[in-house]
Write a structure and sequence with these properties.
- Pfam families: Abhydrolase_6 (PF12697).
- InterPro entries: AB_hydrolase_1 (IPR000073), AB_hydrolase_fold (IPR029058), Sec-Metab_Biosynth_Hydrolase (IPR052897).
- With about 260 residues, the chain is of the alpha/beta class.
- It has ten helices and nine strands.
- The protein has one domain: 3-Layer(aba) Sandwich (Rossmann fold).
- Strands 2-1-3-4-8-9 form a six-stranded parallel β-sheet, with helices on both faces. A three-stranded antiparallel β-sheet has the order 5-6-7, with no helix packed on it.
- It starts with a helix and ends with a helix.
Length: about 260
């Protein structure tokens, strides 16, 4: 039979272990999804369904695309409604939005999905010229209204934005575009949340809207945990929702650690 002193020693040792080894952070439950230019939040439906079934509280922002400031404000408005720590996810131009809006105190991590991630003073339009995409080399693919709003030529969107989606789905997206003010692509950022918060990045290997090399450069600079989905188009969040949702879920489970 152990002596009383030996038992006390064992209890003390157990207490020291419990003090020295704090419990791991709880997984993030709130996820906010931010869409890119020319589309809306409905494109996140498949990703939303997967994450919701896994128990996450998921909300999609609907940006007006009337100005960069308006879109950042729309994202912050949704962040204000969250009840705790939140993971912020952005696709394409939505990456610029989350980079600026991600300084919000509730945001604990960022996920970039085939997305831009400029630094303070940078804008995605200028950076895109350094790494031209197929879109940039396709004359007449982007059209502009007399009052300065841009859209993808409907005949070009299925080929450039969503070549790996069912044709009918891509054509519907081409005819239901949210026109984006041209200024949203050239407004310099005033904050870069990836400098102070952990980030994850998804490279779409066959992206024709953003050059995949630019995506890789962004994520390397931000020290993002990065994966590449080979052969995926710019619509990777729609054509590969399981893979995209898996990255988001992993980020939510680890952003607080």
């Amino acid at each position: 039979m152990k002596s009383f002193n030996a038992i006390l020693g064992a209890v003390a040792a157990m207490s020291l272990v419990s003090i020295a080894a704090p419990a791991s952070a709880e997984p993030i439950k709130n996820i906010v999804l931010v869409h890119g230019a020319w589309v809306d939040g409905s494109g996140w439906k498949a990703v939303y369904d997967i994450l919701s079934k896994e128990g996450f509280h998921v909300t999609a922002v609907q940006e007006p695309e009337t100005s960069f400031a308006d879109d950042v404000t729309a994202a912050k408005r949704i962040l204000d409604l969250q009840d705790g720590p939140t993971l912020l996810v952005g696709h394409s131009y939505g990456g610029s939005v989350i980079t600026e809006a991600g300084v919000h105190p509730k945001v604990v991590g960022l996920v970039y999905v085939a997305a831009h991630a400029p630094d303070v003073g940078e804008d995605e339009g200028t950076l895109g010229k350094k790494w031209p995409s197929v879109l940039a080399k396709t004359e007449g693919a982007v059209e502009k209204t007399p009052d300065g709003f841009t859209y993808l030529k409907p005949s070009e969107l299925p080929k450039l934005f969503a070549p790996d989606l069912p044709r009918a789905q891509a054509e519907f997206e081409a005819r239901s575009q949210v026109l984006a003010a041209a200024s949203v692509f050239t407004t310099p950022l005033t904050a870069a949340a990836w400098k102070t918060k952990p980030s994850w990045g998804i490279v779409a290997g066959n992206d024709q809207i953003i050059n995949p090399d630019l995506e890789r450069w962004y994520y390397e600079r931000a020290k993002s945990k990065t994966i590449e989905i080979k052969g995926a188009s710019h619509s990777v969040y729609e054509s590969h929702p399981k893979e995209v949702a898996a990255v988001i879920a992993d980020a939510a489970r680890n952003a607080g650690n």
